[in-house]
UniProtKB/TrEMBL annotation:
Coiled coil ranges: none
Keyword Hydrolase attributed: yes
Keywords: Hydrolase
Residue ranges of domain VOC in the record: 215-325
Organism: Pseudochelatococcus lubricantis
One Pfam family this sequence matches: Glyoxalase
Gene3D superfamilies per the UniProt record, alphabetical: 2,3-Dihydroxybiphenyl 1,2-Dioxygenase, domain 1, Isochorismatase-like
Protein's UniProt name: Nicotinamidase-related amidase/catechol 2,3-dioxygenase-like lactoylglutathione lyase family enzyme
CDD domains tied to this protein: cysteine_hydrolases, VOC
């Protein structure tokens, strides 16, 4: 699968249960006879990947599995639950077993608000993860962590059922049984997600971090009689007006939610398109590239209505606005 269709601005990395209970040889799985070396092997590549996401300012979300010595909900079950197969209850609240492994602890502390406690396998089940993803504008979820056939798989299924684009980072996911993992990943690829490697994901971040246009912003049309034109677009075509900041030069200006805006000043026989605007990810980097190419600038970096902006001329003379939302001079 090509990751090119995904956007960092709509993405997040989910790190599932990188806790002593499941990774450390002295944690619950280790003392219960599980060979934790295959689990701890994901820590180095995962650490590198987490750091790359944080450097790119892409959210990193963590789940922390937490259990209690007394669990009346589970106590009501007639059949043995999975915790009965271990020497102790894993990840007891307020214990070393529950803590994130030392190698990743400082990275999780970068944003404590992105650490989500859960009491069952699923990262979404009765947690605040879903609303947090909506708040952050996340549509693409890169999934990592432990263990493959329990918490990771449950979370992948939950994410897919919420119509998120899911990418499982293969070398940053581990479980207790290699055979189970192979089968699970075959099922995932068939139904729930795409598989990628941490190196491929890092390359995707590098490529997407280069200065580039993100999406179409708007087109500004120059008109002779703005009142007449506004009436045409609203009353006859059903356009709706979008609140917008006034232009710096004070010319009458009306923006529509349908993607165009009108500005007064057109003279008979004059061009109608004032400019076309696009949102970009790094307007400073793009400005530097365009200057190196001797592109003509109408306006250099300045605070525009939509963010830090430049206006340049394309080869045919059309004025192009390029703006970075949230940036300022």
């Amino acid at each position: 699968m090509s990751l090119d269709v995904l956007e960092p601005g709509k993405s997040a990395l989910l790190v599932i249960d990188l806790q002593n209970a499941f990774i450390h040889e002295e944690g619950t799985l280790g003392v219960s006879g599980v060979d934790t070396r295959r689990l701890s092997a994901i820590v180095p590549p995962l650490k590198t990947l987490i750091e790359r996401f944080q450097q790119a300012d892409i959210p990193v979300l963590w789940t922390l599995q937490e259990h209690f010595a007394t669990d009346h909900s589970r106590a009501g079950k007639k059949l043995a639950n999975h915790t009965a197969r271990r020497k102790q209850i894993s990840a007891l609240a307020n214990t070393w077993d529950e803590e994130i492994v030392d190698e990743l602890k400082d990275l999780a502390a970068v944003n404590p608000a992105h650490v989500i406690r859960k009491h069952r396998f699923g990262a979404f089940h009765e947690t605040r993860l879903e609303i947090l993803l909506r708040i952050l504008g996340v549509r693409h979820l890169f999934v990592t962590g432990a263990t493959t056939n329990a918490c990771v798989e449950t979370s992948i299924r939950e994410a897919y059922l919420r119509d998120l684009d899911v990418v499982a980072v293969d070398d940053c996911i581990a479980g207790v049984n290699g055979t189970w993992e192979t089968t699970a990943k075959e099922v995932w690829q068939q139904y729930f997600c795409e598989l990628s490697t941490s190196a491929e994901v890092a390359s995707w971040i590098d490529e997407k971090s280069r200065p580039r246009v993100l999406e179409y912003g708007h087109q500004l049309i120059m008109v002779e009689d703005i009142d007449r034109s506004v009436d045409f677009y609203t009353r006859l075509l059903g356009f709706s007006i979008r609140p917008a900041k006034p232009l710096a030069d004070g010319r009458p200006f009306t923006a529509f939610r349908q993607g165009i805006a009108l500005i007064a000043g057109k003279e008979a026989g004059h061009r109608q398109i004032d400019h076309i605007a696009f949102e970009v990810n790094d307007v400073r980097g793009l400005a530097a590239r365009l200057k190196e190419a001797d592109v003509h600038f109408f306006n250099d970096l300045h605070d525009g209505p939509y963010g830090l902006s430049i206006y340049v001329r394309d080869p045919d003379g059309t004025k192009i606005e390029l703006y970075e939302t949230g940036a300022a001079a």
